[in-house]
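Quick illustration, no need to memorize.
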Amino acid sequence: MTDSTPRRLVVMRHARAEHSGPSDHERRLTDGGADDARAAGAWLAGLGLEPDHVLVSAALRTRETWEAVAEGAGWDDDATHDEGLYAAGPETALDLVRQSPADALTVVVVGHNPTMATLAQLLDDGEGDEEASNDLAGGFPTCAAAVLEVDDDWADLEEQSARLLAFHVSRA
């Protein structure tokens, strides 16, 4: 990487959603889930993060999660909605992150479990924040966000190549 500025990757699970909908793909957030997502946005903005690229599963609950996160953070809610991320396993999700624009310094990915939890754990090199690592190991509930620092280009992102800086579960 030519720029020495570290990159940040936020791996996030969607907020609480209704138990049913016309289809799984069309399940909406609960009111509490939307509140949690706005709180997550405020937390992320409080860390000084502002995304350059946002990758969101095409499912309704992930799109609504991102919209509420962006609202809570005061960010533009522009995002790339990816149908493949809806059913992606961790390897596919990692491949999608690798396709992020080379000049993006902060990338946010909003998806589903178990993929988001596994992706965060796969990327963590174990050299980051110990408390955050312990919290991450304890589970990845709805509206969980892992913030990782990446030294390499997105295209070169590999397993255990990022440091976990923070982990947070938003509950409004």
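The domain at 7-169 is CATH 3.40.50.1240 (Rossmann fold).
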